[in-house]
């Protein structure tokens, strides 16, 4: 995973514990840092890595939103100590939480807290690009490759409904930018703020953005069958609640796209039937940047941890099964994935795994990071 020193072009204070950081990309790296809406950047400092979603629309300079996490070494440094002109080690954009901008259609986005960062990028890009009829940037593939359903007028531009949950008005990230988007696209953007610790004019918009509230809000404000894609981003509880509610409403799983920002549970202990493995190690072959490396991975050790000893260039960030940076495809052999909060079912069915959560389950395994 190559890192490049990027200069901080600007820092915007969003609220007391959050900032937006814009990076200056030199011309020779412009292709490497071209991003699709909803993708993320990995930041490295003193051996630590963290992944932050890009909040800028496609075609703009890369800009990430960062909220300070209690005890978070990198988030605290970014929010309180980083200054314009500083150099930061940043890896090129990754991620498949991205729409097809050329398809237009109707999109509903549900976010909470800092989950707004990729959602803002998606919303702004859909609204701006569909108006201009422009094609999405080259070099990235999104999850939502399906054309809009019958009856949706693409020529009129994408339609977006955004449900955004926060504690109070003063904790809302990108409040002014969301308001500006609403002013710019009043007929194509519906913006719904829900606050859990501050009374609103309607009780319907006061409280947590949980399953019960979504059961009330979504059918009331959205023509559910007409929606082409649903984009969910935030903490584990909100995303799982939203997924459950959409299932109850009959939304096909293929139209629901999810990204988590944190999970309040530890990964399960390694469980691997001994009958599947002959011996204490498995020969794992890693393909990255066209180079193949075979390493012995001990029983109970993840593919990422085992292979990193010989291939320190393997991509990773959270090692918690959330960000998806370590995604690779199993092209031979079998693995057991302990948990998955980043890949959609279609990706899993195609053989993709999170290497930070996957244990070899056959004597030989081949994983390809280039696919």
From TrEMBL:
PROSITE patterns: 2FE2S_FER_1 (PS00197), 2FE2S_FER_2 (PS51085), FAD_FR (PS51384). The keyword Heme does not apply. Pfam families: Fer2, NAD_binding_1. Its cofactor is FAD. CDD domains: fer2 (cd00207), PA_degradation_oxidoreductase_like (cd06214). Signal peptide: none annotated. The keyword Iron-sulfur applies. GO terms for molecular function: 2 iron, 2 sulfur cluster binding; flavin adenine dinucleotide binding; metal ion binding; oxidoreductase activity. Residues 1-100 form the FAD-binding FR-type domain. Keywords: 2Fe-2S, FAD, Flavoprotein, Iron, Iron-sulfur, Metal-binding, Oxidoreductase. Residues 282-371 form the 2Fe-2S ferredoxin-type domain. This is Ring-1,2-phenylacetyl-CoA epoxidase subunit PaaE. The lineage of its organism: Bacteria, Bacillati, Actinomycetota, Actinomycetes, Micromonosporales.
